[in-house]
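ok trying again, last paste got cut off:
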Amino acid sequence: MDINTNFSRDVDNLLQNEEFIKWRLFRTEELEEYWENFRKENPHNEDVLQEAISRFEAVKINYYPISDTEKKDIFGEVTYRIKQHKRHLWMLRAGSVAAVLVMGLLSVIFVKEMKNNARHAIPDNPAMIVGKTLPEEEICLITAGKKTQLPHNAHIGVAEGGKATITFGTDTKKEIELAQTEMSRLVVPYGKRTYMKLSDGTEVWLNSGTQLDFPSEFRGKRREIFVDGEIYIEVAHNSKIPFIVHAHDMDIMVEGTAFNITAYKEDNRKTVVLVEGKVKIEAGDGYRDELRPNEKIEIFEHAVSKETVNVSEYIGWKDGILEFNSAPMSEILKKVGRYYNVQFDETSALNDQTFSGKLFLSGHLDSVMTSISILSSTEYERENNTIRIRKKTAMPMK
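nice, full thing came through this time. structure:
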């Protein structure tokens, strides 16, 4: 077992430690003193402790005020789930799975905002959401009439000479000749994400279910790409050659900036959120406007709205975090579904509540579904490729 494996194991053990969870939740003087002594007596474990704290803090978001009783309930649920999961670890044959589950549970600790701040059990209701996992597909690059499948963790870099270098793993590379006279297409299916650097140095993160059309080289007086889906993009600055993103009925024009675009063909709602710089937007019916940092333009059917937002809610997906603010469960499940290649039907059954906070999108769908169940006072069952979500009267506390 190497050093990195030992480090990860020690961090996972801390995240499953009841005293550690209690400390990060309650922060009493007694607990602060205990862990300060632990630091002094175990200086060699400082890096492990800091990493565990960082992971814990990463999933705590909006500090919604909760009572001591609620904190005790949450602590009891987390520790109960840890013990329950540990009893079954021998079946899973994967020690890290328990830590993943814990992180999924911790991700909802501060996500307790209900509509009208009402805290009550959801009435028993036979309403059920049925979802299914969809067929696995691979990321693919289509160019010059050829289709090349790419691994999930691949990075694609386009050189000025018209070649794409595919890098995966630590040192594995593959070169692909790109079409010179027509656009190439990168297709990212649901359940996958990837990263690409274009020939001018522009960086693009592609979310699940996204299609990007791009040239091997930018020629002429404009740099143009076409998007169906969601991307976060950092455009290389060039004041002489503007950059234009075409996303269905929107055109976003920039020189050098960073922003997020959500424009799925099947969605009526399209958004552009500016992180830095300035962009000009043209949309159908002659609409034109400019965005400043932390502003969002949303087009819903034929209506356009503009507002100031917290940009982290819109770009966290590229770092494996789903952040939401007073969002209905249908919206949350739609994003989770795209991320994990799962389809949920009739999600309006859970729209009587809204939620705020962050959801840690781990590599395990079950840990995320467990978090959602706790968050929404529901229960879920997964049988083969079918997922069923039901409302329940109350969450059992152990």
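cool. Residues 68-86 form the longest helix (19 residues). The first strand starts at residue 128 and ends at 133.
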